[in-house]
Amino acid sequence: MYLAERGPAAAPASGDVPTSDDVQPGRTDRAAQPGRALRAISGTVFALGTVSFITDISSEMVTAVLPLYLVAGLGLSPLGFGLLDGVYNGVSGLVRLFGGHLADRGRRHKAVAVIGYGLSAVCKPLLLVAGTLPVIGAVLAADRTGKGLRTAPRDAMISLASPPETRGRAFGVHRAMDTGGALLGPLVAFLVLNVAADGYDAVFTVSFCVAVLGVLVLLLFVPGGRAPEAGATEAGATEAGATEEKAPPVTLRSALALLRLPDVRRLTVSATLLGLTTVSDAFVYLMLQHRLGISEHWFPLLPLGTAAAFLLLALPLGVLADKVGRRRVFLGGHLALLLAYGLLLAPLHVGALPFVVLALHGTFYAATDGVLPAAAAGAVPAELRASGLALIGTGQALARFCCSLAFGAAWTAIGDRASLGIAMAGLALCAAWAAYALRGQEAPVSR
């Protein structure tokens, strides 16, 4: 199993895989003390965070202009955009399970991640020649295939390089660095659109160059290899290495059998139901523009509000999740999203409205995007870590794919406000169910 370097704190041996967010009574988590949160993070996490930082600059440059390019530039209807947006998010979900299984089966998490990042980079210049819906859809599908391949191996590397009691903050650090790129991406796109004569083509070209840089950093600075889980004792590591050849092979059936584990099943069902009622980011930004009359010139800057809140809160909420319980923070993030939807529907016309909505939107991601895999890692055995994370992520991604299609169709048929009202009601019901299903299944990891 992959491990770039040893975690800073001791954890159970790889053969004693902890259940979801296990607690060791009386244990003092020194890493949780003020000023030590970052010291508890493995160098592997920072290296992968750098890769994600660079890659997100590239991908968010495209994401920031894509809605406007498709709807205003190519004249797509909301239904057509919903289809493409669904492809953009759903294909990665379908491929994620395969990527996780491939990484576990070959014990080569880094190699699979490199393939995924490389495929996404190659797709960026293809947008220059994609002018019709089928071609754009194919390019976006290939780009999301790359994302699907890399996500589970990358998250598995983060979890395996981090002891259980610091996984929340480890994912928080990674997501903060990732979001730093998401924050810069729209700014770069905004600047390129304003200085380049050919506008969108220049954005796609610069995005490709940045994506290539991210792949190079991954190849050169992220270690690869096979090793036991972070924090494993030396005896446990030796025993794991001695028995690795005798371990049963990782198969797709063994990965799907993870759903028999109660914690994995509850997390998967909860994430899937909540994903069914989570409106795509692009639709949130389009609704803000539609409601407030924001000019097309400023539209690429809207994701900055979400990214800024995400960046500021990812690490604090990761530390909080380690202390009070990751699933509590995960559900709290969906309450923030409910508030954002409510403000979009409320008859308010104050200038601060977009800032509050985007801040709540970013809070939702800070409380869920890294917290969910941190919670899932404790429920999945180390030898199936990438497969387990992919299984839960696939359910969530496919659900969001269905939501994009349904929301785009509903917007076309009954308008944006009515569609959001239906989504908000569904999200409230699903959040209530998830709170009931996940009750009593978790205790804090650090104290």
Automatic annotation (TrEMBL):
<feature type="transmembrane region" description="Helical">
    <location>
        <begin position="389"/>
        <end position="414"/>
    </location>
</feature>
<keyword id="KW-0812">Transmembrane</keyword>
<feature type="transmembrane region" description="Helical">
    <location>
        <begin position="37"/>
        <end position="54"/>
    </location>
</feature>
<feature type="domain" description="Major facilitator superfamily (MFS) profile">
    <location>
        <begin position="44"/>
        <end position="443"/>
    </location>
</feature>
<keyword id="KW-0472">Membrane</keyword>
<feature type="transmembrane region" description="Helical">
    <location>
        <begin position="420"/>
        <end position="438"/>
    </location>
</feature>
<feature type="region of interest" description="Disordered">
    <location>
        <begin position="1"/>
        <end position="32"/>
    </location>
</feature>
<feature type="transmembrane region" description="Helical">
    <location>
        <begin position="202"/>
        <end position="222"/>
    </location>
</feature>
<feature type="transmembrane region" description="Helical">
    <location>
        <begin position="66"/>
        <end position="88"/>
    </location>
</feature>
<feature type="transmembrane region" description="Helical">
    <location>
        <begin position="298"/>
        <end position="317"/>
    </location>
</feature>
<feature type="transmembrane region" description="Helical">
    <location>
        <begin position="267"/>
        <end position="286"/>
    </location>
</feature>
<dbReference type="InterPro" id="IPR036259">
    <property type="entry name" value="MFS_trans_sf"/>
</dbReference>
<dbReference type="Pfam" id="PF07690">
    <property type="entry name" value="MFS_1"/>
</dbReference>
<dbReference type="GO" id="GO:0005886">
    <property type="term" value="C:plasma membrane"/>
</dbReference>
<dbReference type="InterPro" id="IPR005829">
    <property type="entry name" value="Sugar_transporter_CS"/>
</dbReference>
<dbReference type="GO" id="GO:0022857">
    <property type="term" value="F:transmembrane transporter activity"/>
</dbReference>
<feature type="transmembrane region" description="Helical">
    <location>
        <begin position="329"/>
        <end position="349"/>
    </location>
</feature>
<keyword id="KW-1133">Transmembrane helix</keyword>
<dbReference type="InterPro" id="IPR020846">
    <property type="entry name" value="MFS_dom"/>
</dbReference>
<protein>
    <submittedName>
        <fullName>MFS transporter</fullName>
    </submittedName>
</protein>
<dbReference type="InterPro" id="IPR011701">
    <property type="entry name" value="MFS"/>
</dbReference>
